[in-house]
Write a structure and sequence with these properties.
By secondary structure, the protein is of the alpha/beta class. The protein has helices spanning 10-21, 33-40, 51-60, 69-75, 96-108, 125-136, 157-162, 174-188, 213-244, 248-256, 277-290, 296-306, 308-320, 346-356, 369-375, 385-389, 409-415, 430-435, and strands at 2-6, 25-29, 64-67, 78-81, 111-117, 141-147, 166-170, 207-211, 327-331, 360-364, 380-381, 394-397, 420-423, 439-442. The strands form 3 sheets. It has a 6-stranded parallel β-sheet, with helices on both faces. Strands 11-10-9-12-13-14 form a 6-stranded parallel β-sheet. Strand 4, helix 5 and strand 5 form a beta-alpha-beta unit. The radius of gyration is 24 Å and the shape is elongated. The protein starts with a strand and ends in a 29-residue tail after the last strand. It binds uridine-5'-diphosphate-glucuronic acid. Residues 120, 150-154, 224, 227, 231, 265-267, 269, 272-274, 276-277, 335-336 line the site of uridine-5'-diphosphate-glucuronic acid. Uridine-5'-diphosphate-glucuronic acid is lined by residues 120, 150-154, 224, 227, 231, 265-267, 269, 272-274, 276-277, 335-336.
Length: 471
């Protein structure tokens, strides 16, 4: 099938690359001329693992090309909308790019198109799209609108696209459902040449869930908001653990063993960031408000998250006593590992807060420093974790890059002025770190000093009594 993908951000690029990988002819458009030129010259405007290789292979096989929106919509049978929906000052999603695209399609296209919204949009956007395609059409367009929310995590988006748990489509006709089923058939059957694995790990085939467009749109916002809620929940549990002297890792482990809760998204830290959770929680609150539902639960989720950085700065302050004049090595700037994205990254508020208090901030991130320089111009950028730690009074971990687990602790010990690590992601092994002479402070767990073992890692597992002779 001839497919076009409008918008070459993380979602659009991954979608275009993977749809080509599973056998479709894809035309991807980008409105930013600089980005478009980069893509046409075989360069990647973003860092997203595996995406570059999949794109290169698809272009070589003549199954993927980049060009203008007008050409993309004129060419395809189905159009995937992957344009940005950034937050407006009042928290609503800004839908102007989607509206403008609807007008262009209505005015330029003749014949049938399936218009598929993949961008994260408020419920009832498909209904608005239908209305505006109808209002503006001048050229004999016939169309259907479907919702097909994405569940791609930055850093693992290719894996998530090709091996998903579910594919959700919202449609109002069997023709649209059949077209989408045909598009996704190789993924539903898990039958395609996988660029990631020679032998794909055996998993359950993805569920293909067909629903109406309103429900599909809600599934996306409800899913992201629910995950954000889990994070804020465990972050509050972490605060409690710090006060009462419990270990949040153990609490999360114990909770996650209940299959009704599950272990995922129970990692405490300095808060969720990125271009999805913060704006989607906000947008979901607004959607509820406008529908007359007070979703105050989500307002708390947001508030708890907004307080994370300040709580973390307080932890650093407690250790350093006076922050002014202290050299602080900040490890990690991206909002999560395996991406160069710093949008709504907790690192930005953290670094600004440390700078306000007069700290000398020396940062290192394996991928995100280029993008960080535009928003954090007043810090020293370093070429590796050791350079950042040179003469430091504290190493502060903001993003859990694997590279930080593999450092040479002896080299690091001799680089720092004071051997103190404040780990905002609970990523390090306390025993290993303290063995090398570091004082280790993490989230929701008692601090550990050299010579003092961390609270026992031994599990007291008492096998479950299935005999019915319980208490
Ligand atoms: C998120 C969702 O996970 C995807 O399913 C969704 O498609 C995507 O948003 C989107 O709407 O486009 P993403 O923002 O890439 O994906 O990243 P996540 O892995 O979900 O992490 C989001 C934030 O939560 C990060 O800052 C991460 O550090 C934080 N987090 C995550 C925690 O603090 N604790 C956790 O246990 C998990």
């Amino acid at each position: 099938m001839k497919l076009s993908v409008i918008g070459a951000g993380y979602v659009g690029l991954t979608t275009a690359a993977c749809l080509a990988q599973i056998g479709h002819d894809v035309f991807c458009s980008e409105s930013d001329p600089e980005k478009l030129a980069q893509l046409q010259n075989g360069k990647m405007p973003i860092f997203e693992p595996h995406c570059e290789n999949v794109i290169a292979a698809a272009r070589k096989a003549n199954r993927l090309r980049f060009g203008s929106t007008e050409d993309a919509i004129a060419w395809a049978d189905a159009i995937f909308i992957c344009v940005g929906t950034p937050p407006l000052p009042n928290g609503d999603a800004d839908l102007h790019a989607i509206e403008a695209l609807a007008r262009t399609i209505a005015k330029r296209v003749s014949g049938y198109r399936l218009v598929i919204e993949k961008s994260t949009v408020p419920v009832q956007t498909a209904a608005q799209l239908r209305k505006h395609l109808s209002v503006h059409r001048t050229n004999g367009l016939t169309y259907e609108v479907a919702s097909n929310p994405e569940f791609l995590r930055e850093g693992t988006s290719v894996q998530d696209f090709l091996h998903p748990d579910r594919i959700v489509i919202g449609v109002d006709s069997s023709r649209a459902a059949e077209m989408l089923r045909e598009i996704y058939e190789p993924i539903i059957q898990q039958k395609f040449t996988c660029p990631l694995h020679s032998n794909c790990p055996k998993r359950k085939d993805p569920v293909f869930l067909v629903t109406d467009t309103n429900s599909a749109e809600l599934i996306k916002h409800a899913s992201n908001s629910f995950l954000a809620m889990k994070i804020s929940f465990i972050n509050m549990v972490a605060n409690l653990c710090e006060v009462v002297g419990a270990d949040v890792a153990k609490v999360a482990e114990g909770m996650g063993l209940d299959p009704r809760i599950g272990p995922a998204f129970l990692n405490p830290g300095i808060g969720f960031g990125g271009f999805c959770f913060p704006k989607d929680v906000q947008a979901f609150i607004r959607i509820a408000e406008k529908s007359g539902c007070d979703f105050s639960l989500l307002k708390e989720v947001e508030k708890i998250n907004q307080r994370r950085v300040e709580h973390f700065v307080e932890t650093v302050r407690k250790e350093l006593w006076v922050v002014r004049g202290k050299k602080i090595a900040v490890w990690g700037l991206a909002f999560k590992p395996n991406t160069d994205d710093v949008r709504f990254a907790p690192s930005i508020a953290l670094v600004n807060s440390l700078l306000d208090e007069g700290a000398d901030v020396r940062a290192y991130d394996p991928e995100a420093m280029g993008k960080a320089k535009a928003v954090l111009p007043d810090i020293t950028y370093c070429s590796d974790p050791y350079q950042a730690a040179e003469g430091a009074d504290a190493i502060v971990i903001v993003t859990e890059w694997d590279e930080f687990r593999q450092v040479d602790w002896n080299r690091l010990r001799s680089a720092v002025d004071r051997p103190l690590i404040v780990d905002g992601r609970n990523m390090l092994d306390a025993t290993e770190v303290t063995r090398h002479g570091f004082h280790y402070v993490s989230i929701g767990r008692p601090p550990v000093t050299p010579g003092q073992p961390p609270s026992s890692d031994e599990h007291l597992v008492i096998s479950a009594d299935h005999s019915g002779n319980g208490l």
